[in-house]
Amino acid sequence: MNLKASKDSIYTLTSKKNLGSLVIVIVAFLLDRITKIKIISHQSSNSEIYVNDYLNLELVWNTGIGFGLFNMEANFLYHLISLLILIIIFFIIFIIIKSSNIEKFFYSMILGGAFGNFYDRVSYYAVPDFIDIHYNNFHWFTFNIADIFISLGIILILTRELIKTNEE
Predict the structure, then answer these.
(1) Domains: count for the chain
(2) Residue 138 lies in a domain
């Protein structure tokens, strides 16, 4: 890639049409970081936070991938998965640059959440999850704010695709 192409890529990423996406990514990342910092600080000396019969806030360190699947030690496979996540992050950035406005919004939600969880993978070698939704003995996977942004972005993309398909 020549120097002019590099400048064009940087300009495209920071152009006015992508500024809204950047704001969404930053907001998602900051909301995720703030809530994780608060829960880590609180639960270093306290127990879980009881909210109601269906929701508790309890810190769980997730060394796997989404929703605690494939928990593992920080070894070669962990680092390989982290590298794959980083590649996916770059791919999402490319998609945001090439997408229409509404799709930029959905992919930006995913990117903000992905940055939040990737930051934790690099900083802590685990992702702090803390939202525990349950009913009687059934517990959903413990998750965090980044997971909400990622899941919501994916659901919105799939919904948009279904609506587009039904309209055709």
Answers:
(1) 1
(2) yes
State the catalytic residue, choosing from 32, 120, 129, 132: 129
Q: Calculate the alpha carbon distances from 75 to 79, 114, 133 in Å.
A: 6, 21, 30
3-state SS assignment for residue 139: strand
Let me know if 53 is a catalytic residue. no
pLDDT in tens, 147-162: 999 999 999 999 999 9
| Active-site residue identified among 32, 120, 132, 147 | 147
**Conformation bin of residue 109: beta by default, left when phi > 0, alpha when psi is -120 to 50:** alpha
Does the residue 140 lie in any domain?
yes
37-63 per-position pLDDT tens digit: 999 999 888 888 888 999 999 999 988
Q: Quick one: how far is CA 15 from the chain centroid? A: 23
Nearest to 64 by CA among 77, 45, 51, 55: 77
Q: Report whether pLDDT(31) > 50.
A: yes
All residues at 6 or more sequence positions from 99 whose CB lies less than 8 Å from its CB, including other chains: 107
State yes or no: is 8 an active-site residue: no
| pLDDT surpasses 60 at 146 | yes
Q: Which domain holds residue 101?
A: 20-167
Q: Tokens for 74?
A: 């920080």
